[in-house]
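User: Hey, my collaborator sent me this sequence without any context and asked if I could get a structure. I don't really work with proteins. Can you help?
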Amino acid sequence: MNLCFAGSHAPDARPTSRRSRPNARDRARGVVDLPLHSRIASRWLLSRWLDRWGLEATQKWLRFNNSPAPLTLRANRLCTTRDRLAGELADLGVRTRLTGLAPDGLIVTEGHPLQTPLAGSGAFLVQDEASQLVAEVVGARPGERLLDACAAPGGKSLALAWSAPGGLVVACDVRPARVALLSGTLREHARRVGEGRAGRLRGGGAFRRGVRRRTRGRSL
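Assistant: No problem. I've predicted the 3D structure and written it out in structure-token form, which is a compact way to encode the shape of the chain:
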């Protein structure tokens, strides 16, 4: 499954035939002509894309990557549903549409959900659809024990906990700054929704050898 462009219109970047690929001179001219102000484009990357995909597809990739990502929410299935959340947001002047693949996702089309009372209730978190799908692919089941070894900032760990009520999610990361970010996310979520509805999470420690063995479940 390609998670990179979930819910978006990704460019059709099928490989060009060898005959239609630009030669070195055309490729160099194409690099100059393409918008180098792209946030993700460097000359070596543009040159690679031009060689593999051709000028037209490379231009599509640049336009896609330079387009602002939509604000996407994930409903907390422990205390609400996506449809109910959409209705409550609509009552507060926030319009949304359903994500294409993620079952709990809403894409904001109008309004500011983070400025509504729901933002502090724990009913949703901001998470792009690709990240939402990571937790879905894991397929966590109630009562299961899970290890998220690259957990910061914490959205995936929360989603796993929501998917596995009665289970345990051990959330870790390797750098102190990321561990601090992870701990803050989990504590803030527990404060908003209450310990009973936060899901069973254990976080705040750096990943160490032996954690996977002690978790005795699946790892992410």
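In plain terms: Residues 24-66 form one domain. You can pass these tokens on to your collaborator as they are.
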